Amino acid sequence: MERGINTRCLHLLDEERTEHFGSLSYPIYQTATYAHPGVGKSTGYDYSRLQNPTREHLERIVAGLEYGTEAFALSTGMAAITLLFELFKPGDHIISEADLYGGSIRLFDNISKKNGYSFTYVDCARTDLEKEIRPETKAIYIETPTNPMMNVSDIGKISEICKNHGLLLIVDNTFLSPYFQNPLLLGADVVIHSGTKFLGGHNDTLAGFIVTKDPAISEKLRFLIKTTGAGLAPFDSWLLIRGIKTLGIRMEKAQKNALLLADWLKKEKIVKKVYYPGLPEHPGYGIMKKQSRGFGSMITFDVDTKEHALKILEDVRIIKYAESLGGTETLITYPTTQTHADVPEEVRLKNGITPCTLRLSTGIEDIEDLIGELEKVFAGLDE
């Protein structure tokens, strides 16, 4: 019988009780290299750029949570995407969600295009993707929900298109984490995570993951990670192992707060629109109910003026004005100058990101304190 997800966040199924002298905290193997027992013999580890026991333990946990056969832990989420795109070659074409994290767009437009790849950016939730496929198309790359406009794509439907045309489906699952969504079970070929966010959960380290169950992709990535050298360091791997232990209870509490906060925000006079897929009126609500176990804790909302948006950022105190998400603390972000600053203005506006747009990563504080602070800040906007 398969163990529950909270148990799997804590335990590997085949872990020996006496391994590592019974230590409940997995050891940090802070070593660069390993001594060999003799010529032609190995302990199973040779050099930490290739593999490290702490990183390997973390990778097995994440692979299990995403129902993959192998995971690769890298130094950042962007390092993970960069490594993954080494699977492609000059001339290859990728269909990409238009409303992506700004760093992904920056990578594609400034590095991937330089390397000879071409991209078509579309609203994957509403576009007939088959019409965008070319002979040289190799993959479809999506986030769902998207960052920051919370658009929801049907992973299973897009997977069918990819399989019919021999394309890879790559899904960035950062916003929901494997606790709420498992794209590989829905037909995706590769899952990407910024482990810095919900998997780490404490805003104290950077990490990225690639997860797959395709043996051919795994073999190529194993070669690439040892060749390019962006594997996650032992101490950072240990921080992720520790963070994942509480993934479930953090996700549940943050989501509960997000549902209450989104409902409160939509009743406020200065708030013109709330983008949260847990609201029944959200266009992706039905798809989320079908393909996910929850709605997550990310909320985007528009206020009435740019001046009010900036004053909210200046006046919050418990809620921190910071550029990240997925930690225990509630953070508020201004996409125009932070996460999506490198995205051309006309593209931002087309995607719905205006100078009035704010993004909340809801944390695990008491909801009365979060709402109380926003009530006070909103009340003081015109003073």
Keywords:
383 residues; single chain; Aspartate Aminotransferase, domain 1; 7-stranded mixed β-sheet; Aspartate Aminotransferase, domain 2; 15% strand; 5-stranded mixed β-sheet; 12 strands; alpha/beta
CATH topology of the largest domain: Aspartate Aminotransferase, domain 2
Low-confidence stretches: none
Number of strands: 12
Oligomer: single chain
- What does the largest sheet look like? 7 strands, mixed
Number of helices: 13
For this structure, what is the CATH class of the largest domain? Answer: Alpha Beta
Sheet/helix structural class? alpha/beta
Supply the CATH architecture of the largest domain. 3-Layer(aba) Sandwich
**N-to-C order of helices and strands:** HHEHEHEEHEHEEHHHEHEHEEHEH
CATH superfamily of the largest domain: Type I PLP-dependent aspartate aminotransferase-like (Major domain)
- The general outline is globular
Chain-averaged pLDDT: 96
Question: What proportion of the residues is helical, as a percent range?
Answer: 25-40%
Domains (count)? 2
Amino- and carboxy-terminal Cα gap: 60 Å
Q: What's the arrangement of strands in the largest beta sheet?
A: 1-7-6-5-4-2-3
